[in-house]
Design goal:
The chain has 63 residues and is an alpha+beta fold. It is built from two helices and four strands; from the N terminus they run βαββαβ.
């Protein structure tokens, strides 16, 4: 499992956008978003760079 610290997510729409972006690359991925902490947990065979790029393409910052 990979964990990303993401800033800019504030609501359910943000959560869905991140999940859908990752699922577009790996439909079988398990994605959990914690809006309060900004943590995005991803269980997938994708590498971290691909996940980071998908999240950033939605307009969020990954630390």
């Amino acid at each position: 499992m990979q964990v990303f610290n993401v800033t800019g997510m504030t609501c359910g729409h943000c959560e869905r956008a991140v999940i859908q972006a990752i699922h577009a690359l790996d439909p079988a991925a398990t994605v959990r978003v914690d809006l309060a902490s900004g943590a995005v947990q991803v269980d997938s065979s994708l590498d971290a760079a691909a996940i980071r790029q998908a999240i950033e393409a939605e307009g969020y910052t990954v630390h």
